[in-house]
Amino acid sequence: MTGGIRAEVKVETTEACPVAEATTDRRNAISNVSRNLSSGDGTVVEEFTTDAEASVDDDRMYPVFTYDSRVTYRFDREDDIDCPCRRVEAHDIPVAETTIENGSMIIAFHVTDLDELKAVIDDLRDRYTISIERLVQSGGDGESDDLVFVDRGALTDRQLEVLRTAHDMGYFEYSKESNAGEVAAELDISTSTFSEHLAAAQRKLFAAIVDE
To answer: pLDDT per residue over 72-89, tens digit each?
Structure first.
């Protein structure tokens, strides 16, 4: 059994998502969103579940199942909307789970490796404001590990240069191979400027690692 990665990505928009647009009460989470492409005519059939008291403002959507205080709705539409879920599926990756709440949507999907993950993330980021909520990697022994996706794009070019130079010069080794002054000299900046860039870069990286 080979390991794979489950990604949960938050997209800070619900535009172009007919489910989100039809459900105007953002306090009620929408879950179990599923899509099925009908054969032949390019029609997409969708289902989603929300609270019974939620307002659903789309005549195409009709209830198909009710349990407790939740209702599952179904509707069909043309497959011509470039929504976040469709962007994931364009990589031949099914969306495993979608939840919509408070104007954002969280899309869960599975990839085989980090290269495949990066391709999907880059595609989504080109169109939307996104954040990585969680990455889980499965192992061959049946165990799973939490992964951290560090976005190097969050660093400025100068911060990345400072980190690379400090790393290459052994600044982060247990027995430092160079000190701050030596790394600063290599970068042709003052020691205080080196420290400022390094601290800013570390804050961004630590935030990616420890923030929930």
So the answer is: 999 888 777 778 888 898
